[in-house]
Amino acid sequence: MKLPSLNLQILIGAITGLGLGWYFHGLDAENAVVELGLYSASLVATLFIDLLKMILIPLVFCSIAVGIANLRQHQQMHKVWVTTLAFFVASMAIAIALGLLASNYFKPGAGLHLAMFTDAMQNFEAKQLPLPEFFAQFLHSIFINPFTALSQGNVLAVVVFALILGIALVMGGERYKNILALLQEALEICMRIVSWIMRLAPLGIFALLFKLVVLQDATMLTTLGKFIAVVLGTTLFHGVVVLPLILFVFTGKSPLWFWRGAREALVTAFSTSSSNATLPVTLRCTMQHLHVKPEIAGFVIPLGATINMDGTALYEAAAALFIANIAGIDLSLAQQFIVFFTAMIAAMGAPGIPSAGMVTMVMVLQSVGLPAEAIAILLPIDRLLDTLRTTVNVQGDMVGSLVVQKLVSK
Ligand code: ASP
């Protein structure tokens, strides 16, 4: 019997995971069938994410080094670098502006009181994260021994070392052609392994979404309903209207074409809530389905997975305003500017792992004197919100690689 295409299998996996999860959510949590279901789903979900993480570091290392080395002419390298960073900053700025506008307009949290959440806040101790210290730490984590970075799975430091190695390969020219050929072959092998891992994707995605829905805390969903609706609605608007519009204006490509090529990565991002774990799939879709040249995709996608986070940036700003509302504090325009900038830094500094944005959000809250413990209120709903913001984070990287490819080829 011929199986349906991988894309269709993934879609079926996602829908059945959500549906069955919903059904199990209504059953008694002590029920043996629910326990068995959760246990099996955890095993499969962890296996899928472990496999993606297993290939992540060698893949990032090879793809960046080879990507940079292939942007041979110096001129082009400079242009790709500058265009990429400009795109990242601009798209995150639009996302934050949207988050601020929507929160000012809908005022989520205005009817709630901080006192309602004291229990949650009492058990939560926020780690101090003042901006200067955060910046110093961030800078300190960039240049480290590559072997340590590789073995610890430190994506940012691996990205930076691979960039430097790529530049050295370009400078050395013919002299290092063997090493370049070796890295090129290693990259091909990594992509082959990714395509094997993807065969497990329908089941992995089923298990991840099933677990997500079964374990979701439903009472918090209703209390924070308006905030959830504002965040999901605005993030969706960024993903469905703003990013496709940017793509169309710069490249003339239709949203449908993009969706067809990108869906494997988008559904994986939605279910794993991790840009890093999704990275192997993002690279595969960008190079193989969206036809971005490996040297551009190999550079823009891994860098984007660590620093370009539109969904997270939007969330950090919207959540800060939400907390201000329930604390009964009116943030002035100047304070909202501070939120704007710290949200961008917090999103750039957040690693591409589940709930990372929650941790760096402490910095945004502190920058305008809001109680950092208040993020305890958001923790029970974070796994849910993380799905869509990670999807938009990954989408932003893919759109970025297409726009950069177009702009540098002019
Ligand atoms: N989970 C997000 C990502 O991996 C980061 C965040 O928590 O906002 O892109």
UniProtKB/TrEMBL annotation:
<dbReference type="InterPro" id="IPR050746">
    <property type="entry name" value="DAACS"/>
</dbReference>
<feature type="transmembrane region" description="Helical">
    <location>
        <begin position="155"/>
        <end position="172"/>
    </location>
</feature>
<keyword id="KW-0813">Transport</keyword>
<keyword id="KW-1133">Transmembrane helix</keyword>
<feature type="transmembrane region" description="Helical">
    <location>
        <begin position="227"/>
        <end position="250"/>
    </location>
</feature>
<dbReference type="InterPro" id="IPR036458">
    <property type="entry name" value="Na:dicarbo_symporter_sf"/>
</dbReference>
<dbReference type="GO" id="GO:0015293">
    <property type="term" value="F:symporter activity"/>
</dbReference>
<keyword id="KW-0812">Transmembrane</keyword>
<keyword id="KW-0472">Membrane</keyword>
<dbReference type="InterPro" id="IPR001991">
    <property type="entry name" value="Na-dicarboxylate_symporter"/>
</dbReference>
<dbReference type="GO" id="GO:0016020">
    <property type="term" value="C:membrane"/>
</dbReference>
<feature type="transmembrane region" description="Helical">
    <location>
        <begin position="7"/>
        <end position="24"/>
    </location>
</feature>
<protein>
    <submittedName>
        <fullName>Sodium:dicarboxylate symporter</fullName>
    </submittedName>
</protein>
<dbReference type="Pfam" id="PF00375">
    <property type="entry name" value="SDF"/>
</dbReference>
<feature type="transmembrane region" description="Helical">
    <location>
        <begin position="356"/>
        <end position="379"/>
    </location>
</feature>
<feature type="transmembrane region" description="Helical">
    <location>
        <begin position="193"/>
        <end position="215"/>
    </location>
</feature>
<feature type="transmembrane region" description="Helical">
    <location>
        <begin position="44"/>
        <end position="68"/>
    </location>
</feature>
<feature type="transmembrane region" description="Helical">
    <location>
        <begin position="80"/>
        <end position="102"/>
    </location>
</feature>
